[in-house]
Amino acid sequence: MALSLNCVIIGPSMSNTSRSKEAGEGIGGSGGARGSPQLDSERGFIPRERDEARGLFYVVVSTVAYGSLPILAKLAFATGVRTAGLLAWRFAVACMLFSLLARRAPPLALGTRLTLWGLGVIFVGNTVCYFGALHTIPASTASLIFYTYPVIVTLLSAALGMDRLTVRSVAAAFMAVSGCALTAGAVAGSPRGVVLALATAFIYASYVMLGSRFAAGIPSETVSLHVTQSCALIFVPWALVRGGLVLPPVPAAWGIVAVMAVLCTVVPIRAFLAGLARIGPARAAVVSSLEVLVTIGLAAAFLHERIGPRQWVGGALILGGVLLQNLGALRRMGGRARVSRPDRPAI
């Protein structure tokens, strides 16, 4: 899932996603930098073939990393790791790594820092709900339900007068809601998990909207640092109180926690931004839409989860709704991606 911290990043979608800030910023400077695509203010991104291939590779790496997160969580639970301890270590380690990445970033005003820490508190609620859902429903189902959040963002934006509903957005919303109903209805005996997965989608949608507004123009590493600081400051005491900070003496448990903190948190954010700078937000958004399919595939391979007919249809409707929202990006897949303001924050 994309429980990514990217804040101005982040928004897998909403046009699906751009876990990043304005293309070209925060990743090594301007579009004319070595190894980056040529940037024409009138025509947008003009990626060189090598840069384009490399950019697609980076975004695929990010997508696979985010998609593997729920599978690693399930495997960690199987080794005896508690939710509180898993999240405490994940965000504590990620926070330390982001501290190194953001060490040269310009200082922020206290008000801005408080705002970013507030985003972190929202992300805590999102994370707790998602990992709670993983305890009671399959990872593939949780991922499918969570991925309705791009459509939720569209509906919330319209309700708040921030955007207008179009025939396409209404159709996408109908497809996503129908798909969610089919997917949830196929999960027997676990209404709590379905509710938690839906809560995750709504909270993350709120996180994305607030992050896109209040974190705009701030380097992704700085946003991610403050969000992980909030998460660590909440999850570490929680783990201490619950007695889950000490991980089981099992090598697999420590390995999973390390991979989750580094390869499923820090690396995908960096990889997505590197890819975004080379191929632009439109193509990056479409490629990121495949994240849910990565989760389904990995869940089948490593957790032996099986998707029933109703879930396949529901998943197809959800993914179809997300891709319908990104129809403009799909049309540009064969051409030049335009520079646009990303609408998704970053963790």
Cα separation of the termini: 11 Å
Task: Provide the gyration radius in Å.
Answer: 19 Å
Query: Order of strands across the biggest sheet?
Result: 1-4
Whole-number count of domains = 1
The parts where pLDDT drops under 50 for at least 5 residues are 7-43, 336-345
Describe the protein's topology.
Elements: E1 5-7, E2 38-40, E3 44-46, H1 49-78, H2 83-101, H3 110-134, H4 139-146, H5 149-159, H6 167-185, H7 191-214, H8 220-242, H9 251-288, H10 291-302, H11 309-325, H12 327-332, E4 345-346
Antiparallel strand pairs: 1-4, 2-3
Helix pairs in contact: 1-9, 1-10, 2-8, 2-9, 3-7, 3-8, 4-7, 4-10, 5-6, 5-7, 6-11
Structure description:
With 347 residues, the protein is mostly helical. It has helices at 49-78, 83-101, 110-134, 139-146, 149-159, 167-185, 191-214, 220-242, 251-288, 291-302, 309-325, 327-332; strands at residues 5-7, 38-40, 44-46, 345-346. The strands form two sheets. It has a two-stranded antiparallel sheet with strand order 1-4. The protein has a two-stranded antiparallel ribbon with strand order 2-3. The radius of gyration is 19 Å and the shape is globular. The model is unreliable at 7-43 and 336-345 (pLDDT under 50).
